[in-house]
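W.,

You were right to be curious about this one. When I first looked at the sequence I had no strong expectations either way, so I just let the prediction run and decided to look at it fresh. Below is the sequence, 249 residues in total, followed by the output.
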Amino acid sequence: MDLNGKKILITGGARGIGLELLQTCVDAGAQVAICGRNEQTIDKARVQLDRDILGITADIGDPGTPQFLYDRIQSEWNGLDILINNAAIQQDLDFINNSSDQLLEKIADEFTIDLIAPVKICAALMPLLKRSDDAMIVNISSGLALAPKAAAPVYCAAKAGLSSFSRSLRYQAQKDAPHIKVADVILPIVATDMTAGRGNNKMMASGAAQSIVHGIRREKQTIHVGIAKLFAWIMRVVPSLGYRILRGT
C-alpha cells in the first residue's frame, strides 16, 4: 500500500506511539487527522511537525464520539482510507485487595477506551472506508492479548478482545469488501507515558511506529512489532513458557 495521498485518522495521535505514527505517515505523504482529548496536546503536535494536520478534539470514551468523527471526516475530507485505532489506557487493578467501589469505574473506563470505542469507531467510519478504493483498518493490540500479566487484567482482556474482533472483521471484509484490509498490531512494551514505571527493555516509540507503517505498506494481517514476534512464536510452540514469563509482570 502506497501511503502517499492517503487520508489517515489516528486516535491518540498527539502522544507516544500515535505521535510517531503521525510523523511517519506525514513523511510518507499522507493526509493525517489525529483525535485526542487534549486540545493543547494536539496543537503542540501540529507545531512540532509544522505540517497541515487535521486535529480533532474528542474523547473516544464519549458515546457520541464515533458519529462525531464520522461527521468531521466527512465534512473535511469526504472520505477516509486508513483508520488507526491507537488510543488506549492501562491501569493496574487489584481485584483481590481493592474494594468494588475502587474498581467498578476503572473497569468501565478501561473496557470503553480499549475495546468498545475502537469497535464503535470501526462501525461509524465503515461507510467512508467502503468508498475508498484501497482502505485499511489498523487496530493496535498488544502481546498481552496473547498472554496476560497479573497487574492489568482488564487491559489484557480488552486487548485480547480487540485482536479477536480484528480477525472477525477481517473475515467479513474478505467476503464482502475485499478492498478493506484489517490489521492486528501486536506490540511489545514500548516506552510511552502509559508504560512509565512498568517493565524493562522497552522499545522506542519511533521504532514501533516505523514497524507498524512497514506492516501497513505490506498489507500484513498481523503486524508483530519487535520482540512481540518472538513472543508470538513462544505462545504457539510453548505456551506454558509464555504464561510463566508474563504471570508476575
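Here's what jumped out at me. The helical segments are 16-27, 39-49, 65-76, 100-131, 153-176, 205-217, 228-237, 239-247. And, maybe more interesting for your project: The longest helix spans residues 100-131.

Coffee later to discuss?

I.
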